[in-house]
Design brief:
Layout: H1 2-25, H2 28-36, H3 44-53, H4 60-73, H5 86-121, H6 126-140, H7 143-157, H8 173-203, H9 206-213, H10 218-229, H11 231-241, H12 245-248, H13 250-255, H14 261-271, H15 274-302
Helix pairs in contact: 1-4, 1-15, 5-6, 5-8, 5-15, 6-8, 7-8, 11-15, 14-15
Length: 309
């Protein structure tokens, strides 16, 4: 684990370098300064003054290490579009995105595992074929179509849920139920197909036939052996998705007016709000490296044959 944690240092530095080069080499500085200045003040002299004020006239290597320092201290200054400290914005909006995505993700994985287990247990039979067809249909419908149908039919026509909006505290649940349903609906097809394949690969192995020959029932084999051995690819699939939950909520946040980090990222891109974008790059990188470590640890817990070496 210590060795894995040490790997995070070059990963973070590499992510910072890529973002820094995109901004400085591709030509983002002029666009950034252009957005900072009022329309009447966009003169060459003003741009040069702002370059000096924000340190953009210093050597690139100095600017890069200044960015690294900001990452270490998580002090990115103030948002240019929202006029608030960046750390306050991130701390306010990451929990909102987490409340939107993590409960839906847990429900999605639980339902998918149950249905995939039924598909594997009744493989080749009517239930397996029916659930497989439903999975393919679910994979074929884009998220945008489901959002529009859900808002029009369930929220507007049937008035079962609010169309959009947000409220702090427990009042937010009424605005989250429909996005949760849509998230599970659009994601469950992919999960069922993947989990079913992982389980069927184990079912066809020699140790399953040996267990049957010893007199074990299919239920015992499925839960005591097949499911545990299939957990390696399933854990890989599940844990590696967690860092992307924040970006996966962008469409839901935009259409349902939920003030999460995905919505903040889109607004910052359109407004070229560089301090916020810098912080978001750090947040996503941290999520990715942390859950990569969690994946490795869970491997060793699920399968004692695996060691972090």
């Amino acid at each position: 684990m210590i060795r894995r944690l040490l790997y995070f240092v070059p990963i973070l530095l590499g992510a910072a370098l890529i973002f820094f080069l995109i901004f400085n080499v591709v030509g983002g500085q002029d666009k950034y300064l252009y957005n900072l200045l009022p329309q009447k003040a966009r003169t060459f002299e003003q741009i040069e003054r702002y370059k000096h004020q924000y340190g953009l006239d210093r050597p690139l290597i100095v600017q890069y290490f200044e960015y690294v320092k900001q990452m270490v201290t998580f002090d990115f200054g103030r948002s240019q579009s929202r006029k608030l400290p960046v750390d306050r914005l991130i701390k306010r909006m990451v929990p909102v995105s987490a409340i939107l995505t993590f409960p839906a993700f847990i429900m999605e994985i639980a339902i998918s595992l149950i249905l995939a287990g039924l598909c594997a247990f009744f493989r080749g039979r009517t239930l397996d074929k029916f659930l497989t067809i439903l999975s393919v249909l679910g994979m074929s419908v884009p998220m945008l179509v489901l959002i529009m149908l859900g808002q029009y039919i369930l929220a507007y026509k049937l008035n079962l849920f609010p169309i959009s909006g947000w409220q702090k505290g427990f009042g937010a649940i009424q605005y989250l139920i429909l996005p949760w349903i849509l998230w599970v609906t659009v994601s469950i097809g992919y999960d069922i197909r993947f989990f079913r394949t992982a389980l069927l690969e184990e079912i066809n192995k020699d140790y399953v036939r040996t267990s049957k020959a010893k007199g074990m029932s299919e239920t015992q084999i499925m839960f005591r052996h097949v499911l545990m051995n299939a957990m390696i690819p399933i854990l890989s699939y599940v844990v590696i998705q967690i860092p992307f939950l924040l970006t996966g909520s962008i469409m839901l946040e935009r259409f349902f007016s939920i003030p999460g980090i995905g919505s903040l990222m889109v607004d910052s891109i359109f407004n070229y709000d560089l301090p916020v974008l810098k912080a978001i790059v750090l947040v996503y990188t941290l999520f990715f490296v942390v859950f990569s470590l969690v994946t490795d640890v869970l491997y060793a817990l699920v399968d004692p044959r695996i060691r972090l070496s």
